[in-house]
Design a protein that fits this description.
Layout lengths: L6 E6 L3 H10 L6 E7 L3 H11 L6 E2 L15 E4 L6 H10 L3 E4 L7 H14 L3 E3 L7 H11 L6 E11 L11 H4 L3 H17 L5 E7 L12 E7 L5 E7 L1 E11 L2 E7 L7 E4 L2 E2 L7 H15 L7 H20 L3 E2 L1
Parallel strand pairs: 1-2, 1-4, 2-3, 4-5, 5-6, 7-10
Antiparallel strand pairs: 7-11, 8-9, 8-15, 9-10, 11-12, 12-13, 13-14
Helix pairs in contact: 3-4, 4-9, 5-7, 7-9
This protein binds NADPH dihydro-nicotinamide-adenine-dinucleotide phosphate.
């Protein structure tokens, strides 16, 4: 077989994101490569092994998955499954002695997130969440401008992320048991992340409300959620997540100016400006940068900047938002 460089990654769950983004990104990575696959769909085995030159011994299904413990080709397991399955496969991967990247949102509850963190810690393995935007230059500029108070103290933030859902009405994203929630879990975590890394602060309270215009489609999960978050510095963030509106925005208004990404969370085509002018940074492959950084952290034995604890905090905030929708009151995070 072909000689490959860096740590071996096995993708678990060969759906849209694994096939459309992660596998192509793994053709560009320098510190890691696509070494194996785990799939419940036999037909995908041949398609993927032909396309990416994956040897039969590195192909697993959900029943044989634990045997990955005996496979030295696999260093990292990347969990790209429906959200409710993240916990089980992260824990099984850690028990098999592998480092783990788990996709966002981390899990369906903060209790599950904590179990995942504990399992990886007990196994002496690193856990990272697929927060690709921490490696993306436009979003990194928002972190710099906000955290270093380049335009002074931030007073107000706006973050919106959503799309008009037109997919399969039976997809896992619309099932509470598999998705944990709707637009808030899937799209809203980017807004929560955005305001957290722009301020460098943790929200104290949230106040939220839900809107449902297509109840026949969103029977089990939230469609559109509006929420406000208050930060210790006094900054207030107004956010919106939706499966029924096209939004993609992250903005901060500070004492001496503003800064904004108008394509904030996408895989490419990022765009932004400040009150001083247009931002101009390179467009990079975010997933390749994210996975290369994690592989480098493992080799260098240094912590990842996007650990399980960061995913846990986002789910704690999501839970506070759902509590606020239910109570109609402001809730502590
Ligand atoms: P898909 O539905 O496209 O793929 C999920 C895959 O999981 C399926 O193809 C299947 O793979 C496997 N699977 C196993 N059991 C089930 C089940 N009961 N129902 C459905 N699928 C099952 O989802 P996505 O790829 O869009 O999302 C996967 C994860 O990645 C989610 O956590 C999502 O939030 C995250 N994601 C992250 C993005 C980012 O930008 N960071 C972007 C998009 C998604 P197989 O046939 O191989 O078993």
């Amino acid at each position: 077989s072909q000689k490959k460089n860096g740590l071996g990654i096995a993708l678990v769950g060969l759906g849209g994101y694994a096939g459309g983004q992660l596998a192509p990104a793994l053709q560009q990575t320098k510190n890691c490569y696509l070494a194996g696959i785990v799939t419940g769909t036999p037909a995908k085995e041949k398609i993927w092994s032909d396309k990416y030159n994956i040897p039969q011994k590195n192909i697993y299904n959900y029943e044989t998955f634990d045997k990955i413990a005996d496979n030295p080709d696999i260093d990292i397991v990347y969990v790209v499954l429906p959200v409710a399955m993240h916990k089980e496969y992260t824990i099984r991967a850690a028990k098999a002695g592998k480092h783990v990247i788990c996709e966002k949102p981390m899990a369906v509850s903060s209790a599950d997130c904590q179990e995942m963190i504990d399992a990886c810690k007990n196994a002496g393995k690193m856990l990272s969440i697929g927060y690709r935007l921490h490696f993306e230059p436009y979003n990194m500029e928002m972190m710099r401008l906000g955290q270093q108070k380049v335009f002074g103290k931030i007073q107000k933030l706006d973050a919106k992320n959503g799309f008009v859902y037109g997919g399969d009405p039976n997809a896992w994203r619309l099932k509470k048991a598999l998705a944990g929630g709707g637009g808030l879990m899937d799209m809203g975590v980017y807004c929560i992340q955005g305001v957290r890394y722009t301020t460098g602060e943790e929200p104290l309270t949230v106040k939220a409300r839900e809107e449902k215009l297509r109840p026949e489609l969103f029977k089990e999960v939230d469609e559109t959620v509006y929420w406000e978050m208050k930060f210790p510095s006094g900054a207030i963030a107004r956010c919106k997540s939706s499966y029924n509106a096209n939004d993609n925005n992250l903005r901060a208004d500070a004492e001496n100016g503003w800064f904004e990404l108008s394509e904030a969370y996408r895989y490419g085509g990022m765009a932004g400006a400040t009150s001083k002018g247009k931002m101009d940074f390179p467009q990079i492959n975010q997933q390749a940068a994210q996975m290369d950084d994690f592989a480098n952290c493992i080799v260098q034995k240094k912590p990842t900047i996007v650990p399980g604890e960061m995913g846990l905090q986002d789910i704690k905030i999501v839970e506070a938002i759902y509590r606020s929708i239910a109570s109609g009151k402001e809730e502590n995070v």
